[in-house]
Write a structure and sequence with these properties.
This protein is mainly α. Helices cover about 35% and strands about 0% of the residues. The chain has one domain. It is built from two helices and no strands. The longest helix is centred in the middle third of the chain and has 10 residues. It is flat and about 40 Å long. The relative contact order is 0.09. It comes from Candidatus Erwinia dacicola. InterPro entries: ABM_dom, Dimeric_a/b-barrel. This is Quinol monooxygenase YgiN.
Length: about 55
Amino acid sequence: MPWKQDSPDSIFMVEHWESLRNLEQHQQTDHMERHRTAIKHDVVDVKIFVLEPAF
């Protein structure tokens, strides 16, 4: 498959959020800040892709 990518050192997560605002607010919570601090030496990069339904 030409579109398939091999990313053995990656984690892919799919989440459904009621709104972009809710996601942005979640990113600012205390537990997310603690999480980012806890993983900062183990994670090289974080990319968030916001997807929309095709229908």
